[in-house]
Amino acid sequence: MAAEQTSSDYIAHHLTNWTFGHHPEHGWKVAHDAAEAAEMGFKAIHLDSMLWAIGLGIFFCALFWAVGRKATSGVPSKLQAFVEMIVDFVDNSVRESYNGPSKLIAPLSLTIFVWIFLMNLMDLVPVDWIPVLAQKIGAAMGHDPHHVYFKIVPTTDPNITLGMALGVLILIIGFGLKYKGVGGFIAEFTLHPFSAKNPILQALLIPVNLVLEIVTLLAKPISLGLRLFGNMYAGELIFILIALMPFWIQWALSVPWAIFHILVITLQAFVFMMLTIVYLSLISQTSEH
After folding, report:
1. Distance, CA of 35 to CA of 39 (rounded, Å)
2. CB burial class (10 A; 0-12, 13-18, 19+) of residue 227?
3. Under a CB-based contact definition with an 8 Å cutoff, are residues 18 and 152 in contact?
4. 78-97 and 247-284 are packed helices; what angle lies between their axes, rounded to 10 degrees?
5. Among residues 115, 121, 132, 193, which is most buried (max CB within 10 A)?
6. Which residues pair with 45 in a beta bridge?
7. pLDDT tens readout for residues 169-193
């Protein structure tokens, strides 16, 4: 595939999503290129990212449900032992990091870790396998193969990672309202970090505190989403650059990078999970003020 295109076209093709949206001139359609996708603006959805993200989520739920249903107290199967190891690892992480009483944190953390790990794991699939297959299917259906785009790593799409970050933000607000009440939650944003005994001075500080606390609140989930996206996007780009090299160099570089990347994809899933736990733990602690 790399031989049929210039290097820039090859890279651009592999970094373009399969996009469906409302074009200002042509209505609802699948974008033929990145320019059309950009013109669709907010009324666009990355079909490939959603397909893989939802599909891997269903796979995770079905796998763990099947293992749990067939779990035995005797000698476990290899798959059951592997799942139990993951569950124990996440459970220990939650116990060490979360101080609140919520029963939601453990299953939430397990879902975050395994789901993100599976999405990251798709980065180890050779970069040409699935896109070339998608192009062949598109050509068989009468479409121009050069206008067929299909990315398979959802976490290299900022829409996916920031969407998960938005979910964390909603949880932070929900936990704050639950454990602090409406008054306590508002006080967190208006009476900190600056406070004064003089009521007039305190009233003057409220707008400053509100701006600072809102920025702090938004920075937490945004940094979560951008960190995951940045690391995975960089990893995908390196795999694409390696694919442009001669065949013998590809194997010399791709195998060591793939081995190292296993650590990256696991670490990024763990970091997203742990920071979510920490943020929810901090917001659920009752303020002394």
Report:
1. 6
2. middle
3. no
4. 50
5. 115
6. 20
7. 999 999 989 888 888 888 888 888 8
